[in-house]
Amino acid sequence: MAATSSRDAALVESLCAHFRAATSIDEREQDSIAEFVQSVPQLVAPFSEHADIRHVTTSALVVGRRGVVLHLHKRLGLWLQPGGHIDDGEAPAAAALREAHEELGMPVAHPHDGPQLIHLDVHPGPRGHRHYDLRYLLLADDVDPQPGEGESPHARWFGADEAFAVADVGLRGGLTIALRTYVRYRG
Fold first, then answer.
1. Best label site of 55, 60, 97, 156, fewest CB within 10 Å?
2. pTM for the structure as a whole
3. CA nearest 55: which of 104, 103, 6, 123?
4. 103-129 pLDDT per residue, tens
């Protein structure tokens, strides 16, 4: 059964078209794209974390002159990009921006030419869930993160080499694309 909301169905079709046209950065992303295109159109409510154990999530690869901002995930104990579930009716690009603001407590923005969906990673989530994580490029000024109450207090800038050293395998492809793409936006 496909998405019941016409908005969701149109968005899923748009995302599938985007990924069909994309060139994957590595084998992991290639496998993620194949699974996304095969599975997500079959979900009744693909953006709802409550409708199915498989759902679309979103995250932000936050870059700036100092490198990339990561936070130490409270439950997983891994340095990751900010991200999470998409609220009902929220656009994925807006959710990436919201999650980055919440988890990093610093001003971030989509590039001046609009949201850039640069990476996809499919991975296990908590409670047996499967996350189809849409990763957007966000830009940040040269300010330090100030995570809010309830968020991981450990968030900071990483240079490229250091970020790759602490990143899990699912993040490395996204980091590569984010750092390459950032070159277009440096002032």
1. 156
2. 0.95
3. 123
4. 999 999 999 999 999 999 999 888 888
Rounded-to-integer distance, Cα 32 and Cα 50, Å: 22
What class, spelled out in words, does domain 50-182 have in CATH?
alpha beta
User: How far apart, in Å, are the Cα atoms of 126 and each of 54, 59, 85, 139, 154?
Assistant: 11, 16, 12, 28, 21
Q: Is 29 exposed, middle or buried (0-12, 13-18, 19+ CB in 10 A)?
A: buried
Q: Which two tokens stand for residue 46?
A: 């693909």
Domain layout of the chain by residue ranges: 50-182
Strand 130-140 and strand 79-80: the pairing is unpaired
Count CA atoms within 13 Å of residue 36 on its CB side. Answer: 30
Reported as type and span, the H/E element at residue 109 is strand 108-109
Q: Which residue has the tokens 């998409």?
A: 86
